[in-house]
């Protein structure tokens, strides 16, 4: 019999946790019973026999000192092309793959939605941990005069939950983000009226990043960044430098998560982080000063405090944590929305039929281009929602969720010890015909109940914002922004893709368009 207790550590508790996990996995219909009291010895023995050891999980060969990095150097796999690399691993090794990119550090890639479900269920009783943004953590710990923690992105355990619990109040619920709807709608309306028909002989991502910066800064700093003014369009303006710095910090930070702290990467990361921090400190201080001078009794009845104002006035939130949070929002927000918007407009440009149906919906909901978008309009935009879901099925900004196990678990019948990095491969699964009909076809109707092509897919497949406690803190905000953008752009414009090559993605770590986003717009 395979001795699980020896394999995963000496503690009896660990042993029973494994067994409980195993019961969930092998589906012996025992999960609701108290195992320690109800399993007979033969049953326990049977269970431990059924669980296969970690070492037996198939995967690419790891070499001494270099792990599997040689396979990336040889071009068999690529850090940037996560879909293709994931697909190759799946085809060669199956639905669960073990890999040591760095010797001694195990990553387990999972491709089966039933395993995604197991991971999510397992997380409900603990603090979900990620082993990412190590550079953010190191940087912030070296600057205790500015930060008092690694922030939401890099912190784990109770320390993370302490931050998350406070910061998600007034932010994460769908009703809470409605407070930002009027300002978001105004910024997007101005963008569509002024920028869309402006001849764009450069990357449209440049334009979308500016829009995303404006929208994120409104939330993070309660500040209108006039990112499209002649002054701000200059390469050394605050807007241009912030966009560049967020991109550089994400890219170099990701590389250091993979290959360790290299001097050249660390230098670029630190410079970018220092720039973002300098803007954050200045703007949060400015807001604090203005709050100190204002008198809440003079606020009008319909006054809506900004998120930053709420954070600065909540006694439970430390001032240094507000700085950390505003930087996190810039790091996580600017690229994510701009990249998703690029993929959304691309898919629409390649699907005139979908554009036409979306235009009909947009004109039905908005009698004129000037009409304000309300929460009711957004909740009636069923087709726009299906379009967005389909965009995020094919082009999520993150290929899957990454978790550092804090307890042992059983996945696909294998024992996975705590300390292992497990990565779900939703983007790969979402493009498999095991789970979707014609998976590479962009078909929003597959999400519309009542449509002849409606598919009842596994709910754990499309999770572009993650799931559970550690889900994207800004999910509803981002969805609100993207829906407004889709409705406003398509209502009066035809979108055209000008490149011969279809748009793909490369991971930096989040999925960025792999070429210039060559879009143009015609008034219709
Ligand atoms: C389409 C747009 C977006 C997508 C698809 C997206 C997706 C994600 C995903 C997959 C995660 C990781 C979840 C996990 O580990 O389970 C995440 C985390 C996060 N996102 Fe987003 N995001 C988007 C936009 C934004 C925006 C606009 C902001 C801020 C303004 C933001 C702020 C964050 C933060 C702070 C976290 C870390 C949360 C934590 O660890 O507690 N995201 N996002």
Automatic annotation (TrEMBL):
Cofactor(s) listed: heme
PROSITE patterns given in the database record: CYTOCHROME_P450 (PS00086)
Q: Name one GO molecular function term.
A: oxidoreductase activity, acting on paired donors, with incorporation or reduction of molecular oxygen
Give the keywords, sorted: Heme, Iron, Metal-binding, Monooxygenase, Oxidoreductase
Binding locations of heme:
472
The family this protein is said to belong to: Belongs to the cytochrome P450 family.
Put simply, this protein is called: Cytochrome P450 302a1, mitochondrial
Task: Tell me the organism.
Answer: Frankliniella occidentalis
């Amino acid at each position: 019999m395979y001795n699980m207790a020896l394999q995963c550590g000496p503690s009896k508790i660990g042993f029973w946790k494994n067994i409980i996990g195993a019961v969930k996995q092998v589906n012996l219909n025992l999960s609701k019973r108290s195992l320690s009291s109800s399993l007979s010895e033969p049953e326990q023995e049977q269970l431990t026999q059924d669980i296969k050891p970690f070492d037996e999980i198939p995967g690419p060969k790891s070499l001494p000192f270099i792990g599997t990095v040689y396979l990336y150097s040889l071009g068999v796999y690529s850090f940037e092309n996560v879909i293709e690399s994931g697909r190759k691993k799946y085809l060669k090794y199956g639905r669960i793959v073990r890999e040591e990119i760095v010797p001694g550090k195990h990553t387990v890639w999972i491709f089966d939605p039933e395993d995604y479900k197991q991971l999510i269920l397992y997380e409900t009783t603990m603090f979900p941990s990620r082993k990412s943004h190590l550079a953010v953590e190191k940087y912030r710990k070296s600057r205790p005069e500015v930060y008092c923690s690694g922030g939401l992105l890099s912190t784990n355990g109770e320390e993370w939950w302490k931050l998350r619990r406070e910061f998600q109040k007034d932010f994460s619920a769908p009703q809470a983000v409605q407070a930002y709807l009027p300002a978001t709608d105004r910024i997007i309306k101005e963008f569509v009226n002024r920028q869309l028909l402006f001849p764009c002989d450069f990357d449209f991502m440049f334009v979308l990043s500016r829009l995303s910066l404006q929208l994120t800064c409104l939330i993070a700093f309660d500040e209108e960044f006039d990112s499209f003014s002649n002054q701000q369009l200059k390469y050394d303006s605050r807007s241009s430098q912030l966009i560049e710095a967020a991109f550089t910090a994400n890219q170099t930070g990701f590389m250091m998560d993979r290959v360790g702290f290299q001097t050249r990467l660390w230098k670029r990361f630190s410079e970018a982080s220092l720039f973002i921090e300098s803007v954050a400190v200045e703007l949060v201080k400015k807001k604090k000063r203005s709050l100190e001078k204002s008198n809440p009794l003079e606020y009008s009845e319909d006054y809506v405090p900004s998120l930053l104002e709420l954070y600065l006035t909540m006694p439970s939130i430390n001032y240094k944590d507000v700085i950390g949070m505003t930087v996190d929002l810039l790091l996580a927000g600017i690229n994510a929305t701009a990249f998703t918007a690029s993929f959304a407009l691309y898919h629409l440009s390649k699907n005139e039929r979908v554009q036409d149906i979306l235009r009909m919906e947009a004109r039905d909901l908005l009698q004129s281009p000037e009409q304000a978008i309300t929460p009711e309009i957004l909740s009636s935009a069923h087709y726009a929602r299906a379009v967005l879901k389909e965009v995020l099925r094919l082009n999520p900004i993150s290929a899957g969720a990454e978790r550092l196990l804090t307890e042992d678990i059983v996945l696909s019948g294998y024992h996975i010890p705590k300390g292992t990095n497990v990565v779900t491969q939703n983007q790969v699964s979402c493009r498999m015909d095991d789970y979707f009909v014609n998976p590479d076809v962009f078909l929003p109707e597959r999400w519309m109940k009542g449509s002849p092509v409606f598919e009842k897919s596994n709910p754990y497949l499309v999770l572009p914002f993650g799931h559970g406690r550690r889900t994207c803190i800004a999910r509803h905000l981002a969805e609100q922004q993207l829906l407004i953008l889709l409705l406003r752009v398509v209502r009066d414009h035809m979108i055209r893709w000008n490149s011969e090559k279809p748009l793909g993605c490369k991971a930096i770590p989040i999925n960025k368009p792999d070429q210039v986003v060559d879009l143009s717009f015609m008034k219709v």
